[in-house]
Amino acid sequence: MNLKITFNGTGTSQGVPVISCTCLVCNSKDPRDRRLRTSILIEDHQTSVCIDAGPDFRQQMLKVHQKRLDAIVLTHEHKDHLAGLDDVRAFNYTMGQSMPVFAHQRVIEALRREFSYVFENPNYPGLPQFELMPINNRPFKIGSLDLLPIPVLHADLPVMGFRINDFVYITDANCIPESTWPLLNKVRVLVINALRIQPHYSHYTLAEALEIIRRIQPQRAYITHISHQMGLHETVSQQLPDYVELASDGLQLML
Fold first, then answer.
1. Which residues contact 251 (CB under 8 A, 6 or more apart)?
2. d(CA 40, CA 180)
3. Nearest Cα residue to 57 out of 72, 43, 47
4. What is the mean pLDDT of residues 100-123?
5. What is the DSSP string of 39-84?
6. For 167-192, how does the pLDDT look when each residue is reduced to its tens digit (9 = 90+)?
7. Could you tell me which residues are beta bridge partners of residue 186?
8. Global pTM?
9. Cα(198)–Cα(65) distance, rounded to whole angstroms?
């Protein structure tokens, strides 16, 4: 099965450039230093799935000219990963159906709070239509895609990464529990978050992410969820091993 992975966004919760910041990265003219909030689009010959739908969801779908979307999968409930869900209304209209949203039950309860207007008055015209699909740590299927949840921790908040075949996507993590490591055997392509160079209480640093990559030993690895504090894309890229790359918005992988 051939997969196409599109990095819709590779930035942290504030995006890059950051409002009012005058640092070197935020003033960079390199398009790779402009980062929307983190999300990926996974497609095969018949199914398309977006992992996370943050505040830039509308812009991201327009950039890739997405005409249909079979589901959205949420890693966790932070705003930069779900705030754009109201914009599924366009897909509701063009596809003539509700949007399946797969998430842990805890995240679904957060959705019911964040989008209370959707659930308190569901007959109001023009509201987004969600089909909430609870998931746990068991494998699940969306169309032709088989997804395996990869439990990780974001400080003390449980977050789900996901594995499809030998591709793994992990964002917003600073700890992979020992019980998760067996799920990371024989990974060929790994995407993992690294916020910046300096230590952070809830995200991997670049050095920590590189250590995770060394332990997993994929053929290729990509860094995402990158803040302006990481440094210039070009400068940091020169310091990475040959098989590791800073992801950038719009990057596509064919697997």
1. 6, 7, 10, 222
2. 22
3. 72
4. 95
5. EEEEE-SS-EEEE---TTHHHHHHHTT-----EEE-S---HHHHTT
6. 999 999 999 999 999 999 999 999 99
7. none
8. 0.97
9. 37
